[in-house]
Amino acid sequence: MTGAGYSLVPFFVLLWILTLTSPCVFMQSCVLLCSFQGGSDVVVHWILTGDLHVHSYYHNQDQLGNQDQTFRGRTSLFKEQISGGNASLQLTGVRVQDQHRYRCHTSTERGSRNSYVSLKVDAPVRKIHIEQVGNRITCSSEGIYPKPELTWSMDPPSSSKNTTTVHQTEQQLYNISSSLILSDPVPDVIYSCRISTRTNTRRTTLRNTASLTAWSSETSVPCSASNTSLTDFSLIWRFNHSQTILIQTRTHVPGTVSEDWRKHVRSVSESGSLVLQGLSSDQEGTYTCELSNNQETYVSNTVLIIEKGRGTGVILGAVVGVVVVVLVVAVAAPVLYFTRRTTQTGAGPVVSFILCSK
Ligand SMILES: *[C@@H]1O[C@H](CO)[C@@H](O)[C@H](O)[C@H]1NC(C)=O
Ligand SMILES: *[C@@H]1O[C@H](CO)[C@@H](O)[C@H](O)[C@H]1NC(C)=O
Ligand SMILES: *[C@@H]1O[C@H](CO)[C@@H](O)[C@H](O)[C@H]1NC(C)=O
Ligand SMILES: *[C@@H]1O[C@H](CO)[C@@H](O)[C@H](O)[C@H]1NC(C)=O
Ligand SMILES: *[C@@H]1O[C@H](CO)[C@@H](O)[C@H](O)[C@H]1NC(C)=O
């Protein structure tokens, strides 16, 4: 009896000290593990420090009379597994406020035990938004937990003034935003913003390429965001930062062209270039190519200038000009020649001079 007691003590001490950690994702469901020997007439209490009742079970059914209201409708046990020794608790719609150390108390006719589980909430970095207005580039992301970190880098490297602000939302998640002030905006610098938290890191890069001039009604705008293989990325083309031209995902190739752009988009090349047709000055503006996978996003802006209209205008003007000159000369020359000839002799060379100067 004493011997059995001795060998049991370290075992129970170990169970008391041992606290499992349960990583949960914000707004998803999560299982807090708890196991015991099993048996009949099982009593299960999930309790927080301060005696807050999370979930209870006895007389073969849930007993939610004392349940704290913050857990209402969000807890359940795996009923058919309880007699077999599984008292794990499923919690749905996990919030940051659910981060606690939970006690699982079980008892049967064979005895009782307590075990502890720490619930840890993570809200990974999802989308990073990057945009440039004037000489200010802003990078931001929302709904992150725990507190994220943000770093800028540039290729070629240089340093600029940057300010980062972090706000905590009502749900205790973090919104982060950082602005980089460019002292000397030059094309083809790659600005990269990296945001990381405990579970993940995402990076977004922005690149402004030199402007592109289209000389005909057709042109191809390269997606110079990256030289990475397109197969791993989804692709979005935008116009003037607002209109969506095309969306292409890894599984959905060649993608969907928006209604307004059907007549202008001929195709998308394998490297992501946008092949445009039927261009007029209405299609002049900024074309943005955005490539993203679940870790990185590459954004590149290209300003397209369309010279087609102006080009033919200039040529037409020149042709009309030449014709007018020729006509004037053709009419004026004989008249001039004739008049000069009648008034003075040797006027031929003078007329030739006028002709040349025209
Ligand atoms: C209890 O059941 C849940 C749900 O089926 C399962 O995820 C968990 O691994 C089980 N726990 C044990 C200790 O068997
Ligand atoms: C951002 O600002 C910090 C100090 O405020 C500076 O150490 C860092 O180099 C800056 N980053 C860039 C990319 O300029
Ligand atoms: C955080 O971002 C969300 C989504 O953009 C916004 O609705 C909310 O107002 C922001 N909260 C704070 C405190 O900045
Ligand atoms: C493009 O490729 C070069 C060399 O192959 C590499 O050094 C560079 O990092 C790549 N750029 C991007 C944006 O992936
Ligand atoms: C697109 O942006 C350019 C430059 O800001 C502007 O001149 C043009 O009018 C815009 N086009 C449309 C259709 O909004």
From TrEMBL:
The keyword Hydrolase does not apply. Residues 32-120, 187-300 form the Ig-like domain. It is found in: Cell membrane. InterPro entries: BTN3A2-like_Ig-C (IPR053896), Ig-like_dom (IPR007110), Ig-like_dom_sf (IPR036179), Ig-like_fold (IPR013783), Ig_sub (IPR003599), Ig_V-set (IPR013106), Immunoglobulin_dom (IPR013151), T-cell_Activation_Regulation (IPR051713). The chain crosses the membrane at residues 314-338. Keywords: Cell membrane, Disulfide bond, Glycoprotein, Immunoglobulin domain, Membrane, Receptor, Signal, Transmembrane, Transmembrane helix. It is a single-pass type I membrane protein. One of its GO terms (cellular component) is external side of plasma membrane. Residues 1-23 form the signal peptide. Its main location: membrane. This is Ig-like domain-containing protein. It comes from Channa striata (Snakehead murrel).
